[in-house]
Amino acid sequence: MITVHHLENSRSHRVLWLLEELDVPYQIKRYQREKSMMAPEALKKVHPLGKSPVITDENRVIAESGAILEYLEAKYDDENRLKLSDEAAQLQSRYWLHYAEGSLMPLLVMKLIFSRLGKSPVPWLIRPVGAALGKGVQRAYIDKQLAPHRQMIETHLASQPWFAGQRFSIADIQMSFPLLALTSRGGLDAMPATQQWLQKVQTRAAWQRAIEQGGPINLAS
């Protein structure tokens, strides 16, 4: 049976969601974050980087969200619930699958880091300077870098219901985490199509079952 090594409030929700969409049995091994919000050392016993998500299946250890989603779809989607037959849709799905972590998430992680320069564990004496620096970097660099991403995503979803086109796919599952992060760190103002997409995925029964299994997602900085 598949084991999902699940870190609370993390990207591994996407793995649980896909397994629920495919109705594939699995078990969860749960890990709690340290006070620093980092993953516990115990995860390094599963994978050298000690990160989540990671799954084990038939003595295979598979890490990285995109790789896990592709593996599970290829092996377990026998009923073609999410697999795409149209080549153009496949290319779209592949693009967004890799864009999510390769292009969008690095900017959102930077935004999170700089937003916390005025908070613990930064020493209290330099928090005012850290807060000012963080706000300045976000305003002068990060937010400007995020702007074309926001526009591209909104334009794309305004023209079609799902990231790969007319059908829900693993691209939508992959894009859910960065768009939740964007909601909490930059907002979805002036992005009505993206807001509609997010509301739509959150009403899916499989999404809700994944939340029941893995716990809520709170990405507020």
From TrEMBL:
SUPFAM superfamilies: GST C-terminal domain-like, Thioredoxin-like. Residues 86-221 form the GST C-terminal domain. It comes from the Bacteria. PROSITE patterns: GST_CTER (PS50405), GST_NTER (PS50404). Residues 1-80 form the GST N-terminal domain. Belongs to the GST superfamily. This is Glutathione S-transferase family protein. It comes from Pantoea osteomyelitidis.
